[in-house]
Specification:
heterodimer; A: about 775 residues; alpha+beta; five-stranded antiparallel beta sheet; four-stranded antiparallel beta sheet; 13 strands; B: about 200 residues; outer membrane lipoprotein receptor (LolB), chain A; eleven-stranded antiparallel beta sheet; 6 helices; 11 strands; globular; disordered N terminus
Chain lengths: ~775, ~200
């Protein structure tokens, strides 16, 4: 049958609309990359903190930079030069390599040393204290350090600044070589770099890593090698690896499917027409997500295209069922109840994702429901109008006939299905690994060797343990600083008793306004200070009158407004404090981080006695978060299953038919779970998503076999269609299953097993028995 | 003095004297040090022992009038004093201190080549009684350190003087010269005494 002018016009219109919509979508598409997309929505404060911590908290934004491949002194020089370079870079909030100098403190902050340092809480600036300080300074002057301390003494004879700087240093100092930090072996110079970008924004992290590379290139010798480790670096790495693999797999997929379709339908025009519904579905899906969610996440696109790949089956059914003696529209009409049942039930299953409470799943649901519906509708109403009738009818195929008769002659033992079910249940029940994987990190997986190397570097640097935190909250920054100060004696006791190695919180860097005012009030006025100082000086070898700069600083400190976090920020010193504070709407939460937690019981007891402090166990919180997410997901799946059965029951209206259609899908789900459990894989969210895809495929196959009923020609056409569908799906997901990336494997493996199981079970359980049909080959 | 050395016939080689100063580690020697500064009414005077523990490693123990221990190992200086926590300084960050320590380390190792990396060496006197001046080369070291003077007899150093750019400094008398000093001794008279030794 030649195409009518109307068909050609329709085809041209379709292509034009598709290209225009594609162009529009591309121009207005705002792709966001945030790997936290599949993390659940937090319900409690702890969980919110946890998820913020994963993406934007202080610890996760901190990258460890290791320099190696040169003698230690050259590495130290490189570390210093890199530090100087990065400190001027907007992309980094904080750069620390152990390198600090007295002159690195901004001059205008110097008088604040009396408000920031805790030493004057226990002493007052009287002749006794000053006398002791001056005697110690005389000894300093006499020591080898005297040469460099001498110019500093007139301004700061009590060395108050050292007290401040010591508080500002990391609580646990790593090994030092040539004045910068090194790892425990002394072979790698280490820097801590805190990025402005959150860890789970791979694009921004990639940009920050590029800045690091560029900075190193400018300063270091050729031998110096840099490795960067940390959540941010990993997310950039995984994003790059994923997109490279997805692109490669996508290319191989496309070639493979085009070749398969060419073999199956022997016409380039047919193949091109055959992919139009899927292309339309993809663009419609992107448009829908963009319209509803504002932007599309990269990971939604990747998963979404994988999931709507099932829509490629819709045109295949039409193409395989075409025959010379009927118009394609007529065939499409005949297939529609079956196709519509499949499309509707799959859409309903994905629709339930909208209520999962996980943004990624909601986007995914929107994308797939719209995509599948559009693919189904175009396959029914547009494709038949533009596709040509074939010269060949797959119903006449001899080899399909032989294959079919072989299949129907296979021995049938209904008990076999029950044996299979029993075997699967046994495997699931007796598998040794836990059924569910509760590790939040499995949703954003990073290779284990990278994680181990990162942990070692962090241990060498003495960075904070990420599992336990104490949180306090208050109305504003100053209120939480007051609360932190109240915790300090208890925390010091924990350190003294060896329960923890060290702790860190915002009040270490910035005392509350009240505390600063109290210290101010304790400072003597100029006249009495001068009298005390003169008395103290007289008892030492120092000349009277050399400490005028000290007197001037104390006089200034008495009238200073208390230092605020905003002022620190303006001076470029706010990063450390900011990273230990979290703003949540009108409230401010402050974190106390710990390193070297040795006695958890003592830490728990401490938190229990402090009414304002909450001890957070981030691992436990994350596990319960994942478990709760999964529970919701399972409820969602149960609702989806009920809805699906309802749709099938409504469409088929016969208990026997419903059972025949649903059995392959149900058993396949069990087979897939058993296969995963049998190979020691604990299930994650991604496996559950895959199971829905598998169920959708199984339903389609069974519906079409069931639709073919007793007509031998129709049976062969259906067999052809389902063969093409399942081989193409198998091909796509087998490639994913062979991927090096855990996420892609988690989707590829179940679907690969599922397609094979679905195909054979659908054939075996849905096709009629030998007695019912024994068609003569044409 | 220069005339005297010429008269003695042999031109004085700073490198040779430095080489003769090399000490076997470990060795130690008593010292008395006087520190002069514009901040001080009168000099600070301490005594104790100086120890050479091997290349790049020095120890300075003050025993009177208080107890203090300074150890220099490689690039770090550690000062411990009774009743106070130890303080550690890195030498690379403190070039003025770096030059001073390098001078001692180089002298005790008898390593003129090492010294010449950081100082300009010159010698006066004769083999019997000599004086070497070490002037720092690096600009940052020169900001605070004017020169290090060493004087002695034969292969015996007697006197080290570290002079800063503010007219202060310290004079360290070692070995036989390490005698009690008057509380009001002046820098110039002490330097003159070193030259005369």
């Amino acid at each position: 049958m030649k195409r009518t002018p109307f068909a050609l016009f329709l085809l041209a219109l379709w292509v034009v609309v598709l290209v225009a919509a594609g162009g529009y979508a591309q121009r207005h598409l705002s792709v966001r990359n945030d790997l936290r997309l599949f993390l659940p929505t937090p319900a409690t404060d702890v969980e919110r903190l946890l998820l913020e911590g994963i993406g934007e908290g202080p610890a996760t934004r901190v990258l460890v930079v290791a320099l190696e491949g040169a003698p230690p002194d050259q590495l130290a020089d490189a570390s210093r030069a890199l530090g100087d370079e990065l400190r001027g870079d907007e992309a980094f909030l904080l750069v620390a390599n152990g390198d600090f100098a007295l002159d690195s403190f901004p001059d205008e902050l110097l008088p604040y040393r009396f408000l920031l340092s805790p030493t004057l809480d226990a002493h007052s600036l009287d002749r006794e204290y000053l006398g002791a300080a001056l005697a110690a300074r005389a000894r300093d002057l006499e020591s080898p350090a005297g040469l460099f301390l001498e110019p500093w003494l007139p301004r700061d004879p009590t060395l108050e600044l050292l007290g401040v700087l010591q508080r500002w240093l990391p609580t646990q100092e790593p090994r030092r070589e040539f004045d910068v930090w090194f790892d425990r072996d002394g072979t790698r110079a280490l820097l801590l770099v805190e990025t402005r970008a959150p860890a789970f924004d791979p694009d921004a992290q990639r940009a920050a890593l590029d800045r690091l590379d560029a900075a190193l290139l400018g300063i270091a010798g050729p031998g110096v090698k840099m490795t960067v480790s940390g959540a941010g670096a990993f997310s950039a790495l995984m994003e790059a690896r994923t997109s490279v693999e997805v692109q490669t797999i996508g290319l191989v997929d496309t070639i493979g499917i085009v070749v398969l379709l060419l073999i199956a339908y022997r016409g380039i025009g047919t193949v091109v027409l055959g992919v139009l519904p899927l292309a339309t579905a993809g663009i419609a899906g992107i448009a829908a997500v963009s319209a509803l969610f504002g932007a599309v996440h990269g990971i939604t696109l990747a998963f979404g295209f994988t999931l709507i790949g099932v829509a490629q089956d819709y045109p295949i059914h039409l193409l395989s069922h075409r025959r010379a003696d009927r118009a394609p529209q007529e065939i499409a009409r005949g297939l529609w109840p079956t196709l519509a049942t499949g499309v509707a039930s799959t859409c309903i299953a994905y629709f339930t994702f909208l209520f999962s409470g996980v943004l990624g799943l909601e986007e995914l649901a929107c994308f797939t429901v719209v995509g599948l519906a559009v693919a189904g509708l175009t396959s029914r109403f547009v494709l038949p109008a533009v596709v040509a009738s074939p010269a060949r009818d797959h119903g006449d195929s001899r080899w399909l006939a032989r294959l079919w008769s072989t299949i129907v002659r296979l021995p049938r033992a209904p008990s076999a299905a029950f044996v299979l079910i029993a075997a699967c249940v046994a495997v699931v029940a007796f598998a040794r690994e836990p059924l569910w994987d509760n590790d939040l990190r499995s949703l954003t997986p990073v290779p284990a060797d990278l994680l181990a190397a990162d942990q070692k570097l962090r241990a060498d640097l003495g960075t904070a343990d990420l599992r336990y935190l104490v949180a306090v909250d208050g109305a504003d920054v100053d209120a939480v600083l007051v609360q932190l100060e109240a915790l300090e004696p208890g925390l010091e006791t924990l350190v003294a008793r060896g329960a923890i190695d060290a702790y860190d919180d915002a009040a270490r860097y910035l005392p509350s306004a009240a505390k600063q005012r109290a210290r101010q009030a304790a400072l003597p006025d100029e006249r009495s200070l001068r009298a005390e100082l003169d008395a103290a000086t007289a008892a030492t070898e120092f000349r009277t009158g050399v400490f005028e700069p000290f007197l001037a600083d104390v006089a200034k400190a008495r009238t200073l407004p208390p230092l605020t976090v905003d002022r620190l920020r303006e001076l470029g010193l706010g990063a450390r404090v900011d990273s230990l504070l979290a703003r949540d709407g009108a409230k401010v939460a402050a974190l106390v981080t710990f390193s070297g937690v040795k006695d958890l019981g003592a830490l728990r007891a401490f938190a229990a006695t402090e009414p304002d402090a909450t001890l957070l166990d981030l691992r436990q919180a994350s596990e319960s978060l994942v478990a709760r997410e999964r529970e919701r997901m399972l409820v969602t799946l149960a609702v989806a299953a009920v809805a699906l059965v309802g749709v099938i029951a409504l469409a088929l209206r016969s208990r026997a038919r419903v059972l025949r259609v649903l059995a392959p899908m149900a058993i396949t789900t069990l087979v897939v779970v058993a296969a995963l459990r049998g190979s020691g894989i604990s299930l994650t969210l991604f496996h559950l998503i895959s199971l829905i895809l598998v169920a959708g495929l199984g339903l389609d196959y069974a519906l079409f076999f069931e639709h073919a009923a007793d007509d031998p020609f129709e049976q062969r056409r259906t067999l052809h269609a389902v063969l093409v569908c399942s081989i193409s799906t198998l091909f796509v997901f087998a490639l994913l299953a062979a991927s090096s990336l855990p996420v892609l494997r988690a989707i590829g493996l179940p679907v690969t097993i599922g397609v094979v199981s679905n195909f054979f079970l659908a054939l075996y359980l849905t096709t009629p028995r030998e007695a019912a049909a024994d068609p003569a080959p044409p | 003095m220069l005339a005297a050395s010429s008269a003695a016939g042999a031109p004085l080689d700073a490198r040779q004297i430095v080489a003769s100063l090399a000490r076997e580690a470990p060795s130690s020697i008593a010292f008395t040090e006087a520190r002069f500064s514009a901040l001080l009414r009168e000099p600070l005077i301490v005594s104790g022992t100086l120890g050479y523990l091997g290349p790049g490693s020095l120890e300075r123990r003050v025993t009177s009038p208080y107890v203090e221990r300074t150890t220099i190992r490689g690039d770090s200086v550690r000062i411990e004093r009774d009743g106070e926590g130890a303080r550690t300084f890195g030498l690379k960050r403190v070039p003025e201190l770096n030059g001073f320590v390098a001078a001692f380390v180089g002298l005790l190792a008898g390593d003129a080549t090492q010294l010449e990396q950081e100082f300009v060496l010159s010698a006066t006197g004769d083999a019997g009684s000599w004086q070497i001046e070490l002037a720092p080369k690096e600009a940052r070291a020169r900001r605070r350190l004017r020169s290090v003077l060493v004087s002695g007899h034969g292969s015996e150093p007697r006197c080290f003087a570290v002079l800063d750019t503010q007219g202060g400094g310290s004079v360290i008398l070692v070995g036989a010269s390490s005698v009690p000093l008057d509380a009001d001794v002046a820098l110039d008279s002490l330097l003159a005494r070193c030259r005369a030794e």
